[in-house]
C-alpha cells in the first residue's frame, strides 16, 4: 500500500475513534474556559475602573466639601478679627447660622490664646468641653503654637472627641503672631462628615477607610461583606492633613457590576462543544454504519462470486459428456458460435471436423454396448490428447466426435490436424483384452467458406462426412459448394424413394462379363437404376445408401432378385439361356432372415434354376456377424446359387475367410485395375489375388476394365473374366440382347453410352 493511502486510513481511523467526540468537547471546553477567563479579566478591569471612578469622585467630593467647611471656619475667624469686641451673643448667633448652613459641624468653638475652650455653640450637650484645654498633648500644643505664629490653619488628626466618638477639629487662628486672639474651631464627627460627604450609594456598597498619616483613622461600614479582589486607595489633597481614602466594594456591588457575558460565552461555547461532539458522534455512527454496510456488501459480493463459481462448475458439468469426459455437443456448439464471432473480428478461419468411427455400429451390435462404451472412452482419450487452447474436442453422441480448430491460417493447418486425428487410429485399441483396429471417416467444414454460423458449419461438415463415407471410409472430405445441392437432392430422393417401388420406377441394367478363355459372355451383373419422374435415370450411388439408411433396401433387394429371376425366365428358352445374372446384395439385405427363402421363392416361381443366379457380396459380409452370414451364405450355396465377393481388396485385408466361405468368384476392385498396367504395386496385388484365388479354386473377375493395356495385363496373368466399359457399359436388357445378337460384346467395340 502506498503512503498517502495509509495516512488517509490513519486519519479516517482517527476520525472514527470513540475518543474523538470527547476530544472535540474538551477543546471546546478549553476555548470556553479561556474565553471566560479573558472576558472575566476584562470585566474585572472594568469593575476596577468603575471602582476607581467611584473612589475618585468620593475623594473629590470629600476634598471639595471639606475645603468649603474649612473656608467657612476661616471666614468666621476673619469676622472675629474684624469685630474684635464681638459680644458673645453675636458670635453665638453667627455660629448658629454657620451650623445650620454647614450641618456637618458638631460644634463651633472659640478657643482663647491659651487653648482653653471658651465659647461653644451649640452649648447644650457640649457643656463638658467648656474650659477644656485643646493643647492636651505636646504635639497638639506645638501644632497650635505654629498656627498662632503663622496664622495658618491647623487641623487636628482624627481624635476621640470629648463629646464622644471619633472626630476632627479645624483650628482657624484669629490674628497671627502676638496679636493672636485664639482660634475659631469647627468640630466634625467623622461619621456625620462621612455621611454628609458621601453619596448614599457609596455608603451602602462600600467599605470606606480613612488613613491619617498611614494610620487607620476611621472606618465606615466595617461590617460590609467586601470583595477582597477589589479596592482603591487614593490620597486626599487637604491642607495640613495627610489623609488616604481606601474604598473596598461590597460583594453585592461587584456582583452588580459584573457582566453576564463571560458566563454566557462559557455556556454558549460549552453548548457548541456539546453540539459539535454530538454531531461528530452522529457522523461517526453514520460512517460506521456505512462501513458496516460496505463490509456486508463486500461479503455479499464475495458470496455472489462464490455462487457464480459454483454455478460455473455446475455449468461445466453440464457441458461435459459423462461417458467420455469430453465437451458435449451443446457446449461445443456454444463455444463454436463464440469462436466464430471472435474469428470474424480477427479475420481468421475456423475448421470444424466431424469424425465418424468406421464399423462402430457393427462392433457395438456384435460385441455389446459395454464394449462399445469402452471403445468410445479409449478413442476419446486419444482424441483428447489433441486438444489445446486452439483445438477443442467434443463427443457428439453415437460414434461421432467433433473437433474445432480455432486459429486456421491456411488449409495446411487443417490437413495437419486431420493427419494427427488419423494417427490416433493408427494403433489398434485394446478393449476387453483384445486388440481392435478402428478407422475413422471425417467431414470438414471451414469457416467462413463453408458456412457463416455454427449450425450451417455443422450441417455442412455432416454433409462432407456423408460424402467421405460414400467414398469408402477411412478418409476425409472437405465440404464443397456442390455438396449442399446434393444434400438437398438426397433429402428429396429419400422422400421420393417411398413411392418408387409402388410406382415401378426401378429398372435393371445389365453389364456383361467377358470370359477371357473363350471370349464368350456367360454372365451379366444386374445394376439397378431409378427412373426418377423428374430427375431422370439415377445411378445407385444416389439412392442405395439412402435406402440402406432407411431400411428400404430390403424391399428394393427383393425387387431386384425378383426382376432378375423374371429376366432369366424370359431368356430361359431363347438364345441367351446360358446367361447367368449376378445381383448385388448389401450386408443389410443379408441381415434379413427371409432373404434366402425369398430368393428361393423367386427362382421357383419363375421356374429358374438356382445356378443361373449369382449373388455379389462385399467383403464386410464375411467379417461381420460371421455366424449368421455363414449360415445364410451356406443356404444360398446349397441352393446352387453362385457366390461372389465384390470389391475385393478394399477395406479388409484378412483373407482367412476365403477358406471358410463357399465362394465361387472374386471380383478385384476397380481401384486396383485402373492403374494396373502402370503401377507396380497394383500389378503385384492383382497378380497375387489371381494366384491366391486360383489356389483356392476360385474364379477371378476384374472390374472397371477400360483399356487395352488393362485387358492385356489381365489376360496375361490368367484372370478369368473381365467387366468394364471396354466391353460394355451397363445397358438395358433389350440393348444387351441386341449387342449379344450382333456379337458386339468384345474388346473391340465398347457398347453403351
Ligand atoms: P459394384 O457392384 O461394384 O458395380 C460396378 C460398378 O462399376 C457399376 O456402377 C458399374 O456401372 C461401374 N462400372 C463398370 N465398369 C466400369 C468401368 O469400366 N469404369 C467405371 N468407371 N465404372 C465401371 P453402378 O451401376 O453405378 O453401381 C454402383 C454400385 O451400386 C455397385 O457397385 C453396387 O455396389 C451398387 N448396386 C448396383 N445395383 C445394386 C443393387 O441392385 N442392389 C444393391 N444392393 N447394390 C447395387
Ligand atoms: Ca457388384
Ligand atoms: Ca464391384
Provide a short characterization of the protein structure.
The protein is 50% helix and 21% strand.
Averaged pLDDT, please? 88
Q: Characterize the main sheet.
A: 8 strands, mixed, barrel
* Count of runs of 4 or more consecutive helical residues: 24
Q: Approximately how much beta-strand content do the residues carry?
A: 15-25%
CATH level 1 name of the largest domain: Alpha Beta
CATH architecture of the largest domain: 2-Layer Sandwich
Q: What is the structural class?
A: alpha+beta
> And the CATH topology of the largest domain?
Beta-Lactamase
Note poorly predicted spans: none
Associated small molecules = ligand C2E, calcium ion
Number of domains: 3
The percent of residues in helical segments reads 40-55%
Kindly, what is the distance between the CA atoms of the first and last residues, rounded to a whole number of angstroms? Answer: 89 Å
Radius of gyration: 74 Å
Shape: rod-shaped
Oligomer: single chain
